[in-house]
Every structure is written in structure tokens, then in C-alpha cells.
Amino acid sequence: MKVSLFTTLFIIISSFILPITAQEISSDSLDYENQRQKVNRLLDERNIKYGQYDESLKKRTGIFGLKTKRDMQESIDILLKIVETDQHIFRETKNLLNYKDQILSYETFEKNKIKELADDYDKRIDNYIQTISKLQKEQESLKEEIEALKTQSGIFTGLSFLLIALGFGLVIYKYFYKQKITKS
Fold first, then answer.
1. How far is it, in rounded angstroms, from Cα 177 to Cα 119?
2. What is the pTM of this model?
3. In terms of C-beta density within 10 A (0-12 exposed, 13-18 middle, 19 or more buried), how is residue 27 classed?
């Protein structure tokens, strides 16, 4: 059996190119997995911050068990950190999608294996997209809560000034009333 020169060259070139391509795919898969873990860590951080926010809403250190301006400011600060984390999650998820696109762009002898990975990644990305949608809805509701807390803060400040004014008025009234009684 005679082997042609073209066949021999093809076998030699293939033996060098195919391992390099497979190595690029595994490297991109590893980058994708690292990015996915990074997004998951960010989601875990966000859950922790949201728990802190829930605790801050329950915190009432004011007189008669009311929220103080400081309590509300702490809640607002936590909400702002949640929003920043959400923005970071969006950026990192976009990077994750870019990695996915890079992985899918390779056409090698492992096409079937890559297709299975891509299907798995698509499911995960769909879950991330659902999570992002949920986070965007939560972000909107948190913004509304921030506005409500700011309004509530203004009301409590007004009530505080009113109570202080009434207290001073009562003290002044008693003072003049005692002077009126002592003069009579």
C-alpha cells in the first residue's frame, strides 16, 4: 500500500494542529468556568448584603421604637451597595457570555463535546438571565423603597420638630400660668 506525499503531509500537520486547538478549547473552558464561579460568588455576596438590608429594616433605635434617620441612612447605604453589586454582576455575566461565544466559535474534532457543553452553558446562562431579570425587578423595588424611606424620614423629622415645639410650648405655658397664679 502506497501512501501519497499529500497524505503524509496532512497526517504530520494534523498531528501538530489538533492538539493546539484542543488545548485552546480546554483553556477557554477553564476561563469560562472561572468566570462562572466569579458570577456565583458575586451572587452569594449579593444575597449576604440583602440579608443585611433585611436586618437593617428591622432595626429601630429611636424613641418609642421608631426608626431614626441614622437607621434609615444605614438601610439606604446597604441598598446602594446592593445596586453596585448588581452592576458588577451584570458586567461579569456579560464577560461570561463573551467566553461562551469564544468557546462556541471553535470548530474542531470535539464538535459534539463542545455542543453538549454549549447546551449546558445555555441552560446556565438562561438561569443567569432569569436571575438578572429578577435582580433588576428587585433593584427597581429597592429604589422605590429608598424613595419611601426618604419620605418617611422627612415625616419623622417633621413630627420630631412638632413634638419638641409642643414640649416647649407646654413649658412656657406652665411657666406663665404659675406666674399668673402667684400674681393673683
1. 85
2. 0.42
3. exposed
